[in-house]
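Tutorial, part two.
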Amino acid sequence: MDTLIFRTATLADIPDLVTLVTSAYRGDVSKRGWTTEADLLDGQRIDADALRRDIERPRSRIVIAERDGALLACAHVADDDGTGYFGMFSVRPDLQGAGVGKAMLAEAERIARAEWRLPAMRMTVIDLRDELIAFYERRGYARTGIKKPFPYGDARYGIPKRDDLRFEVLEKPLSGDTA
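Running the prediction step on this input gives:
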């Protein structure tokens, strides 16, 4: 694989980020990849206002992976009360399974560990997403058993197609991690 270039998103990247994140999770295009939530949720996955807040917030970064100037992947990494937070992880559907996501996750962990000196990384995943949870477990994340309710009625998170959605917190220690 050619070298990926990682950089921090700017406000000018917001339209392209909305398109990328939507393509990875919603609608027919997302079904080309394996991370789709199209069978669970309709509607938006992210909006410009949320991205702006994450870009402008201290110790919060939207990381972009590019190759030859083309946007391939992104993720949000932040300091959440002394622990790393990883979210909005999106890889172009036609590149899922090609190593781009593994490299993006490693870069997000590097930022939290090396730049911010955080001891662990956490994320929330819809607990019905067994294949996605297995992906994270292979990368050192563990299910914590902590469940969080899905925000039904808040269209910012999508329009649920089922009534049994909830999140589970996954966590990975970062100290001494060399990934």
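DSSP finds five helices and nine strands in the chain. In part three we will examine how such features are distributed along the chain.
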